[in-house]
């Protein structure tokens, strides 16, 4: 019981803003240990980067004058042209989110069951501004 009052005495002498900061850090640490909260936070962060990824894919395929590309080639080109992205898994997860959020703009199709050849198709008829706006709203 004496230890608790000593702890409270120590807390009483600390400035209120420092105490608030410590409590906030403790709350964040507890959240980070919770897998459900951590995963939801990671998903929100990934969704917030989708408008930028959309722009990259849109301009890349536009510059190549193509609407179809293998998934492997697309991932490679995205990593190669963007120094912020270094993780293939991250790019693939972001592509999966794009497929989920804007299926009218981007779709994928596996060409053969034996090979891992997956084609990504971009709908050139979609309005880029409306797609970009929908991705911004998803944040």
Automatic annotation (TrEMBL):
Q: Which organism is it from?
A: Prunus yedoensis var. nudiflora
Acyltransferase as a keyword? no
One GO cellular component, as annotated: nucleus
Gene3D superfamilies the UniProt entry points to: DNA replication factor Cdt1, C-terminal WH domain
Name all DNA replication factor Cdt1 C-terminal domain ranges: 17-111
Domain of life according to the entry: Eukaryota
Q: Would you tell me the protein name for this molecule?
A: CDT1-like protein a chloroplastic
Q: Which GO terms describe its molecular function?
A: DNA binding; DNA polymerase binding
Pfam families per the UniProt record, alphabetical: CDT1_C
Entry keywords, A to Z: Cell cycle
Q: Is the keyword Secreted in the record?
A: no
What biological process terms from GO does the record include? DNA replication checkpoint signaling; DNA replication preinitiation complex assembly; mitotic cell cycle; regulation of DNA-templated DNA replication initiation
**Family note:** Belongs to the Cdt1 family.
């Amino acid at each position: 019981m004496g230890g608790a009052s000593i702890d409270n005495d120590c807390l009483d002498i600390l400035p209120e803003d420092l105490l608030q900061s410590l409590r906030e850090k403790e709350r964040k640490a507890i959240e980070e240990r919770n897998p459900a909260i951590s995963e939801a936070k990671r998903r929100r962060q990934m969704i917030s980067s989708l408008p930028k990824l959309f722009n990259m894919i849109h301009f890349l395929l536009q510059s190549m004058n193509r609407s179809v590309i293998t998934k492997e080639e697309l991932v490679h080109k995205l990593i190669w042209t963007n120094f912020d992205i270094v993780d293939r898994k991250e790019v693939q997860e972001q592509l999966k989110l794009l497929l989920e959020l804007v299926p009218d703009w981007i779709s994928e199709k596996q060409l053969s069951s034996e090979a891992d050849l997956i084609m990504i198709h971009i709908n050139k008829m979609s309005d880029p501004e409306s797609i970009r706006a929908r991705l911004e709203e998803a944040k």
